[in-house]
Amino acid sequence: MDGNNPSNPAAAPQRTVKVLAIDGGGIRGIIPAVILSEIQKRLGADLHTVFDLISGTSTGGIIALGIGTRCHGGQPYSPDELLEFYVQSGPAIFKKNFLTPEKELILPKYSPDSLEATLEKFFGATELAAALTPLLISSYDLQSQLPFFFKSHRIAAQANYNWRVVSVARATSAAPTFFPPLHLVRGAEDYALVDGGVYVNNPSMAAFAEARSIYPDATRFLVVSAGTGNRQDQIPFSKAKDWGLLGWAKEIVPVFMDSVSEAVDFELRAMPGCKYYRLQLENLQPASNDMDDVSPQNLENLQTVAQRYVASISADLDAICARLKEGRGSDMPGIGRA
Q1: Number of other CB atoms surrounding residue 178 within 10 Å
Q2: In this structure, how many other beta carbons lie within 10 angstroms of the beta carbon of residue 303?
Q3: Residue 158: phi, psi to the nearest 5?
């Protein structure tokens, strides 16, 4: 999908346009949920009221949809409710059995049934048009071999650009080797969509570019990027040198997701007119690196390391919240709303 501007784009140049971007990482979505919960509590306001654009990839896309649409009785979910979603639903989504190791050699590791049932229960009939602020959710179309962004702010100009939130969440979280692609068909449109983490696991740069497109008159941008923890795993040459297809199969997904995230950090820190806050836990231990470790102990560990991290960056959170309290930088009351 291209980045066409919505109709009548404008922004108040004297104010800062504020962007939230949330990484992919499977069950490690617990970490940004904890971070965002602390930010929301310090602000005393829903996040959609202070951000001009919210973006997410994979698990981060689910969080973005949860906090950015009227999907919960006409209101958004709170980050605390999203945290509960991960703790309660994670074991069902990533359910293993004794056949899992053999199955993943030739098929996706997990059936999509539990994921789809959970998303149906969580989002119901909500459509992307119910966005409370512009949303940018990433996926990748295998059939066209092109990035595919779901953009709520395009709906005002293109009514047929609306989609069910369940479909958007399923597409952005279809991690290769873990879940099958989503076959999304409507009329002449036909897509085979997988996790946007294959090219923007950290969607901050894509979100910044989209914000520049939506608000072309803006000169100042604040990007808050919530990560899912730095894996810090290493693959020695002696281990990788003889890998073929089977050897790389288990490692290639985290390798490309981590590498593109780190490239984004470098690029945004050098971008003129952009203040970039990267909220990334550098050491996951004792929590697991794995995207699908939903053991009770790991669910507890992920919450513990996230809470410790939040406590360690209190000064940064104060600085972020001080800038967010001025509200959105946009004077576009109609954009992104149903």
Answers
A1: 22
A2: 18
A3: -135, 90
